[in-house]
TrEMBL record:
Matches recorded under SUPFAM superfamilies: CheY-like
Entry keyword annotation includes Transcription regulation: yes
Protein's name according to its UniProt entry: Transcriptional regulator
Highest classification ranks of the organism: Bacteria, Pseudomonadati, Pseudomonadota, Gammaproteobacteria, Acidiferrobacterales
Gene Ontology MF terms in the entry: phosphorelay response regulator activity; transcription cis-regulatory region binding
Subcellular location: Cytoplasm
Keywords recorded for this protein, A-Z: Cytoplasm, DNA-binding, Phosphoprotein, Transcription, Transcription regulation, Two-component regulatory system
GO cellular component, one term: protein-DNA complex
SMART domains: REC (SM00448), Trans_reg_C (SM00862)
Length: 221
């Protein structure tokens, strides 16, 4: 899952980036409003974490522009503005949630997970597909009730495929989600992870769409 963090405070931004990376999110960090706008024009994100008081262009203006353009990406405002009026303005401008600084990182994780669930139409954080159950909060995978050991990237790949069941995801998108633009990524890295998942969870789970990417079919399809 790809997140855009818009935050000009170096210490806070680095703490948030590291914390979310531990949850296997790929985080792009924009330190001002202009960089945020460039990122949003060029890439698709699953969630935006948006500080309001940033140089270049105000966070509230970025939010209004997003919604005016029809971009429905979930937005979580992170700000020191703590009055009721500030919250009303942010939510009315199109934010999906509002978190006041200083905040606990555990609460940030919980709010991110809640927005992800809301965006995918799920009431529970757990993903179930046939006899497979993936719990992103506990970071566990079970098949027929028995635990399955996955590497962090295998877990992240399975999670992304299950969250997008019924959709073909390109190798490029999967590679970006798993490695976030790292330079030293083997040309067959995604294929290796797919092979391992098939070996551990069954050869029929992940389908190859030749020339396009990979697909987990919707349950029952």
């Amino acid at each position: 899952m790809r997140l855009l963090l818009v935050e000009d405070d170096e210490l806070l931004g680095d703490a948030i980036r590291v914390a979310l990376a531990h949850d296997h999110y790929v985080v792009e960090w924009a330190r001002d409003g202009l960089a945020a706008e460039r990122a949003l024009r060029g890439d698709a994100f699953d969630l935006v974490l948006l500080d309001l008081q940033i140089p270049g262009r105000a966070g509230l203006d970025i939010l209004k522009s997003l919604r005016a353009a029809g971009n429905a990406v979930p937005v979580l405002i992170l700000t020191a503005r703590d009055t009721v009026r500030d919250r009303v303005i942010g939510l009315d401008a199109g934010a999906d949630d509002y978190l006041v600084k200083p905040f606990d990182l555990d609460e940030l994780h919980a709010r991110v997970r809640a927005l992800m669930r809301r965006g995918s139409g799920r009431a529970s954080a757990a993903l179930e597909h046939g006899d497979i159950r993936l719990d992103p909060e506990a970071h566990t995978v079970a098949q027929r009730g028995e635990p399955v050991e996955l590497s962090p990237r295998e877990f992240a790949l399975l999670r992304l495929l299950l969250e997008n069941a019924g959709r073909v995801l390109s190798r490029g998108r999967l590679e970006e989600a798993l490695y976030g633009g790292e330079a030293d990524v083997g040309s067959n890295a995604v294929e290796v992870h797919v092979h391992h998942l098939r070996r551990k969870l069954g050869a029929d789970l992940i389908h190859t769409v030749r020339g396009v990417g990979y697909l987990v079919k919707k349950a029952g399809a």
